[in-house]
Amino acid sequence: MSLGEKAKANVAVQQALAALPKRGPLPSWIEVNASHVTGKVRSWPSRDEMSYPIDEQLIVELYSK
Description:
- The structure is a single chain.
- The chain is of the alpha+beta class.
- The chain has a two-stranded antiparallel sheet.
- The chain is elongated and about 40 Å long.
C-alpha cells in the first residue's frame, strides 16, 4: 500500500516515519519502506509474533452478547 501525495504531507504520517528508527525492529509480518512511504502486511501474525497480551476469552464474551 502506498499513500497519496496529500497523505504523505500529513503531519501525523511524517511524525510516524520520523519515529521509525527509534521504534526498534518492526515485526517480521510487516514490511515498511519509509523512503517510498509504502507498507505491506506480509502475513497475518502468529500468536508467537504478538507483542501484547490478548485474552481471547474476553473477545469471545464481548461478541457473543
